[in-house]
Amino acid sequence: MSPEAWLPQATLFLTGLSLLLSLAPTGLGMEVMAPATINALNGSSVKLSCTFNSCYKVENKQFSLNWTYQECRNCSEELFLQFRMKIMNKQLDRFGNRVEFTGNPTKYDVSFTLKNVQLEDEGTYNCYVLNPPDRHRGHASISLKVLTKEPPKHDSTVAVIVGASVGGFLAVVILVLMVVKCVRRKKQQRLNTDDQKTEEEGKTDGEGNPDEGTK
Q: Which phi and psi (to 5°) does residue 141 adopt?
C-alpha cells in the first residue's frame, strides 16, 4: 500500500487518540467539542458544530451559551449568539441575519449555521458552555477557512471504512470514560457536601454546648 493510502488512516488514528485523551476523567470540568478547522465555500452555508458532555441534565434556567468571533488571534472577541433562557441573536453588522442557531441544548448540541459565507467571515469562532451544577465553563474554538473554489475530490473509501471502525471503538471507550467520570464527580461533590456539614455541626456544638468543667 502506498504512503498516500496510509495517510487517512494515520490521520484518523491520531485524531481519535487525541479525542480519547481529552476525554480522560482527570478533572472536574465539562468537555466541549468542536472541529479545529472547517472549510467553507464562498457563498455557501456552513454548519459550525459544537457539542458538549455533561453529567447533568440541561435546565434552561441555569444553562448558558456564548458564541464569539475573533478576526485575528490578538483581536477582541465579538459576541454574536447567546443563550440565556432562550436564544438571543446579537445581530452583528458583520453577519446581519445570516446566523441561525441549529443546535438543541437538551441534546448537548449548540451548533449554528452561517449562511451565504463571505471571505470576511474567516477567523476564529469560540463556543462557551456552562451547565450547572458543573462549576467550570467549557470552551472550544473553530478556525473557519473560506475557499473561493471547491478542492479536488479524492477517493475516500478507505478513510470511510477505517473511520467507521475506529469511530465505533472510540464511541464505546468514550461512553465508559464518561460514566466513570460522572460517578467520580458526583461522589466528590457528595464528599465536599458532607465535609461542609460536619464542619458546620462542629461549630454549632462548640458554640452551644459549654464545657462541663466550667460549670
A: -135, 150
What ranges make up the beta strands (E) of the chain? Answer: 31-33, 37-41, 46-48, 51-53, 64-70, 78-84, 87-89, 99-101, 112-114, 123-130, 138-147
Q: Is the pTM of this model over 0.85?
A: no
Give 112's pLDDT tier (boundaries 50, 70, 90).
very high
Contact 140, 127 (CB under 8 A): yes
Report how far residue 161's alpha carbon sits from residue 78's, in angstroms, rounded to the nearest whole number: 40
Dump pLDDT digits (tens) for 136-166.
899 999 999 999 988 777 655 554 455 555 5
For the range 5-12, what are the long-range contacts, defined as Cβ-Cβ under 8 Å and sequence gap of 24 or more? 5/158, 8/156, 8/158, 8/159, 8/162, 8/163, 9/158, 9/159, 9/162, 12/159, 12/162, 12/163, 12/166
Q: Residue holding cell 468537555? A: 31
Rounded distance between C-alpha atoms, residue 52 and residue 37, angstroms: 17
Pairing status of strand 87-89 against strand 78-84 = antiparallel
Amino acid at 50: C
SS (H, E, C) 93-109: CCCCCCEEECCEHHHCE
The owner of cell 470514560 is 177
